[in-house]
Design a protein that fits this description.
With 92 residues, this protein is an alpha+beta fold. The chain is 17% helix and 29% strand. The protein is globular and about 30 Å long. Bound molecules: FE2/S2 (inorganic) cluster. FE2/S2 (inorganic) cluster (FES) binds next to loops.
């Protein structure tokens, strides 16, 4: 089990290895908005405050969307594209 923390509220939850970050935010009613849910629109972007290396690697689609938005691909991720492989903290 790994801990995912939503910095905005301080809420932390335990999740299984490989859990979809999208599912974590939805199941816990964290206020992350979703649009395409396919890595294209950028609506679900969050800042990864801690544990960025504990999220699944970024694929070219996610990277392209973040770059098109002018966002730092080392700091921001798209919730709909990430799986949790260790403790992490996100904020919006
Ligand atoms: S909901 Fe569109 S990129 Fe995640």
């Amino acid at each position: 089990m790994f801990k995912v923390t939503f910095k905005n509220t301080g809420m932390a939850v335990d999740v299984e290895n490989g859990a979809e970050l999208k599912t974590v935010t939805k199941d816990n009613q964290w206020p992350v908005a979703y649009g395409c849910e396919d890595g294209m629109c950028g609506t679900c972007m969050v800042k990864v405050v801690e544990g960025g290396a504990n999220l699944s690697p970024m694929d070219e689609k996610e990277k392209g969307t973040l770059e098109a938005m002018g966002m730092d691909t080392g700091t921001y991720r798209l919730c709909c594209q990430c799986r949790v492989n260790g403790d992490c903290t996100i904020e919006q």
